[in-house]
Amino acid sequence: MTDAAAKAGSTTSIYIELRVVLFSLRDNRLFVLLTPADEQLFPGAWELPGCPFSSRESLEKNASQCIAPFTGQHEAYLEQLYSYGDSGRHPSLDLLSIVYFALLSADALSSGRPADVDVRWFPLDQLPPLAMKHGDFIEYALRRLRYKLEYSAVGFELLPEYFSLSELQHTYEVVLGEKLDKRNFRRRILQANVIEPTQQYRLGEGRPARLYRYRPDAVAEVKARRLFP
Amino acid sequence: MTDAAAKAGSTTSIYIELRVVLFSLRDNRLFVLLTPADEQLFPGAWELPGCPFSSRESLEKNASQCIAPFTGQHEAYLEQLYSYGDSGRHPSLDLLSIVYFALLSADALSSGRPADVDVRWFPLDQLPPLAMKHGDFIEYALRRLRYKLEYSAVGFELLPEYFSLSELQHTYEVVLGEKLDKRNFRRRILQANVIEPTQQYRLGEGRPARLYRYRPDAVAEVKARRLFP
DNA sequence: CCAAAAGTGTTCTATGTACACCCATGC
DNA sequence: GCATGGGTGTACATAGAACACTTTTGG
């Protein structure tokens, strides 16, 4: 492949961007971060935070910078989701959207939130109209999140450093959209040896809850090992 | 986002390409399709089949066209794998590689193979030197294939339309890299109701093997439902 | 003492795993 | 008749699911 080939190929008129589906948890609901879309092109619609692709950085760095204004100094968990190249999503541009999905821990949400950019957190069941098929992006990101929750430890990325077992269970229930059995849930999480108890307690109504912490040395994934079917 | 933003962004000097990791099975080994890389830039190295991105088509169509010369009229199974944006993979270009992985059924392999392009099938354990980190692409594609084999019916994509249960089992064994128990394997596959027996038999040494066929109405995926851990 | 949430074990069922012999064909 | 791969069932171990009551705190 030569530079001539490059010119013949695809270096013209394609707008390469990154988009991030940033999830966070609040009041036992899943939220996603959106910004208002261009009023002229998509009146009344919102869009995912994004930024143009810069080849000077890795894709992940690019994606991280898209959401840096909203995450403060907390590092969000980031993972590449999919690349969408379909034309027709924008009236005058050929878009190539490399989409990441990201998880922001609950304590990061409440801390630094700069109001100099117009952004809002929307609960997943009350999304506004979305431009450029970003609704599809979000739907797919949610599927991936649900899926990953079942065989990896991503769930902890949505929680603060210290959390009670009930908080952890609620996280799972909210993301998966179903109730889980308390005793079974606790037994499995504890047997997995991925969290460790601390000496702290969460006070509130009822009996105080012991707080746990994710073990940084934990094995974060289990093999599915199911052998279709 | 406006057209001005687009120009400020990333419409210059980035070469967008598709690459396909095309797997096929032969003599109970997994093979991947490669073409010789540019002799000047990467002497002695090979690369994955690829083509420049055209925004007139969907990404999947683009990818499909990369391998069309080698698949004949057979449709290969195609799935987006990952997008690699790291600079430094090419001495003079900023590459953005959208990588697909693909499976070609064994009967497609033996039929039409046009020799007007220089390509070769390499067994996975004897890969040549690879340009532009394509070795990483292949490694990741293999991981994804192994993973999918355990919860979906992709395995059948590597087989011809009619196959014996032993052939199916060998496919699984080769991809996963381990031996499976014959009786357990058969029980599970048959209970899953994804294949149906035909009246045909495969002759050879020993007792003839009944041939089966994948049921097009089969449910091709099972939920992992394992709930970490 | 009452409300509210935390914490705790056992039984049953389903799924996965280990394992050895007879069968049908070609030579 | 023998070599070769095809085909079959059972017993045991492990993992998942269902289920109800006691404990600790604040008001």
Descriptive overview:
Two copies of one chain form a homodimer. Helix content of chain A is 28%, strand content 29%. With 229 residues, the first copy, chain A, is an alpha+beta fold. Chain A folds into two domains: 12-150, Nucleoside Triphosphate Pyrophosphohydrolase; 156-214, Winged helix-like DNA-binding domain superfamily/Winged helix DNA-binding domain (Arc Repressor Mutant, subunit A). In chain A, a hairpin with a 2-residue loop joins strand 1 (14-26) and strand 2. The first copy, chain A, is elongated and about 60 Å long. Chain A starts with a helix and ends in a 15-residue tail after the last strand. Chains A and B meet through helix 1, strand 1, strand 5, strand 6 and helix 4 of A and helix 1, strand 1, strand 5, strand 6 and helix 4 of B.
Task: Offer a few descriptive terms.
seven-stranded mixed beta sheet, 229 residues, alpha+beta, DNA-binding, Nucleoside Triphosphate Pyrophosphohydrolase, 10 strands, three-stranded antiparallel beta sheet, Arc Repressor Mutant, subunit A, homodimer
Question: What is this entry, summarized?
Answer:
Helix content of chain A is 28%, strand content 29%. Chain A has 229 residues and is an alpha+beta fold.
How can the largest sheet of chain A be summarized?
Answer: 7 strands, mixed
Principal-axis shape of chain A equals elongated
Number of strands of chain A: 10
Greatest interface and its residue counts? A-B, 60 and 60 residues
- Oligomer class: homodimer
